[in-house]
Amino acid sequence: MATSAGPHPLAPQRILSLDIFRGLNIALMIFVNELAEVKGLPWWTYHAPGKVDVMTYVDMVFPGFLFILGMAIPLALNARIRKGDSPSTLLGYVALRSAALLVLGIILANGGRGNPALMYGLGKYAWGLLALFAAILIWLVYPKTTDKFRCNLYRGLRTLGFVLLVVLAFLYRRTARDGSVGWFSYGYPEILGLIGYTYFSVSLLYLTTRRWLWAPAAWFVMMTAFCIASTAHWIHFDPPWYEFPIVNGSMASIAFAGITLTTIFFLEPKFATFRQKAVPALIFAVITLIAARLLHPLGISKIRATPTWCLYTIGACILLFTLLYYVCDVKRHSKWAFFVKSAGSNTLLTYLLPDIWFYILAATGVTWFGTHFVYGWPGVVRAFVFTAAMLLVSELLTCMKLRLQL
């Protein structure tokens, strides 16, 4: 149990447990999204309704992304600082990544809602497919080369993607609920958009105070307190997400909890062995779980973003990552996670694959998959098969060196 801690922050290596954690979360997301279309299953296999004080494992998928995002923020930003990035360069990097996530979120939120009659006959699903294709051209990781022709080719493909996305944005029109003609809807920018806004706000706060190792824990406490005050209606501050990205503090609290765990495992020099890392991590988990239990009177709900939902998810994520770190990075047993290898390292492409598949089926009018095996346990098998197929495609594309990076 006193095994050396693995990668030191001053000389970082690939953290297997974090990649596997991310891959497992992506695989679970694909599974539960497919399972949502299946009827006749127990209540705990779906998202809990907003008016009910309960949460299911499905309600932990989105905050799992936020927690993993938080864990990755200090590792990525500190690596860029060590390479010599200036403050302005760092801010530009954070802003561009956030904008890219927001653009992808808006595409996914609006892709199937356009009105072909207002878009010169362009089908709404064809629009979504073309928009994702344009995004892939922009954020595809092109091979590094010194060949002038290939450099110009890759630059041209990226420019083509940008121009295509701009043209599609100008073409997009939808019919609003009141019958008027509208442009993009920003009411809910999908998971990627919310992650982008959370990433932007949390990264700025982290960069401002990163020299103090205790700062992420302090931010976590502050965001949790803000979430408690908002949920309890002690304060009345409810601007839309695009005006105030922290919203009620729930998403930022989860991300800062991830940064705090990264500080414990990889940034605090006093914690050199697994035991020294695990003890404060487990104490952190126990505290969050106890706090979640004490806050039950405020309700338990993902839809309402209650602090209890945040804290239960945080506690579970801490325990799971600690176990994965011990198994994968300390004991070096990672072959069992082969099925999520590409999902963990090529996450964005894997995330988009189910949406690409949906747009292809919808644009071509294929309905068989939406009408078969959609009830009971056959539907569960279908969800497992679909998840395995998406992970396999991700692995094949990754082997072909097709990778997306913001």
Descriptive notes:
By secondary structure, this protein is mainly alpha-helical. The protein has one domain. It is 63% helix and 1% strand. It is built from 14 helices and 2 strands; from the N terminus they run αααααββααααααααα. A two-stranded antiparallel ribbon has the order 1-2. Strand 1 and strand 2 form a beta hairpin. The N terminus is likely disordered.
Count of strand segments: 2
Helix content: 55-70%
* Sheet/helix structural class: mainly alpha
What is the N-to-C succession of helices and strands? HHHHHEEHHHHHHHHH
The first-to-last residue Cα distance is: 37 Å
**Major sheet:** 2 strands, antiparallel
Mean pLDDT value = 92
> What coarse outline follows from CA principal-axis ratios?
globular
- Strand order of the biggest β-sheet: 1-2
Radius of gyration: 22 Å
Number of domains: 1
Number of helices: 14
Write the layout of secondary structure elements.
Layout: H1 16-35, H2 61-82, H3 87-110, H4 124-139, H5 148-171, E1 174-175, E2 181-182, H6 190-209, H7 215-231, H8 250-267, H9 274-294, H10 307-330, H11 341-345, H12 347-364, H13 368-371, H14 376-399
Antiparallel strand pairs: 1-2
Helix pairs in contact: 1-2, 1-10, 1-12, 1-14, 2-6, 2-8, 3-4, 3-6, 4-5, 4-12, 6-8, 7-8, 8-10, 9-10, 12-14
List the keywords.
2 strands, two-stranded antiparallel ribbon, globular, mainly alpha, about 400 residues, single chain, disordered N terminus, 14 helices
Question: What's this model, at a glance?
Answer:
The protein is an all-alpha fold and 406 residues long. It is built from 14 helices and 2 strands, in the order αααααββααααααααα. Strand 1 and strand 2 (181-182) form a beta hairpin.
